[in-house]
Design goal:
alpha+beta; single chain; two-stranded antiparallel sheet; elongated; 53% helix; 209 residues; 6 helices
Amino acid sequence: ARIVAMKCRGASSLLRDIYLGADKPWGIAPPDDPDVPQEIMDSIDRLVQTELAMLQANGIPVGPEIIRDRVNQLMEAARDAEKKRARKRAMIAEDRINEILEEGGFYKALAEFIVDLPLFPFGCIKGPTVRIVPKVSWDTGAPTIINKPKLFWNRVSPFDIWWTPGASDIEDAEVIERIRLTRSDLNDLLDLPGYNHDAIREILDLHGR
């Protein structure tokens, strides 16, 4: 009757509706009480000193309660302004991160992961990994192709992942992934830090012969 397959398709469909709908499956929330920058604190101190000097010059007595209330009033206004700036920074950061995720194939990897999740005991998304990709630049007034590093995400087959036997948590395990690479993929690694370039050149030379 293929009941299991139907249930798995239904589960994947529900997960896609939740995580791949119009709303993003993630977000950035600004801090509830962001720190007021030190330069703003210094400006408040100078403003209170100036106002205090003006009042004393006009012969108006000023008690410590008035000074404290004025400082608290200015600090509250500074906190409100910092909250607005924090919300604006969070929105800008969210848009930028979403652009990076879309260009790096994160949502495509997430869609493939959602298919794996009901079928296998676990699913895996790998990333971000850095790849060298060509990009057209107009800095000189003419189109030139430059190679730049870029972040990518991809779904990894559960049959290509192994970890330490007996590990109770993936964070405590040594993980091995079986990767299939082309000559072009290996060539792209020659420009990235953290790789043994001599070993990569040896592999390319041996494979060519």
